[in-house]
Amino acid sequence: MLAVRTPYRDVIGEHWFRIIVLTPRRYSSLGRLLKSIDATDYGDPKVELEIRIDYDESDDYQKTVEVAEEFTFRHGTKHIHK
Hints:
The chain is of the alpha/beta class. The chain has helices at 27-39, 59-70; strands at 2-9, 15-23, 46-53, 76-81.
């Protein structure tokens, strides 16, 4: 898994942070990472969280999608790409 934090400027000009999480079908590791990301203090900026899950026809893939979908991100928006 890889988490990348990159500052960028969105279309309305606000400063945000974007965190991109790339993951295969490792739902336990994803759950731990998401808890860590949510526990972080980001200060004032809004944060966008992107979770990108590699497609795979397995039960582990489905569990990974469930972990991502059930996660509530308190610091901004969450997008899941599966």
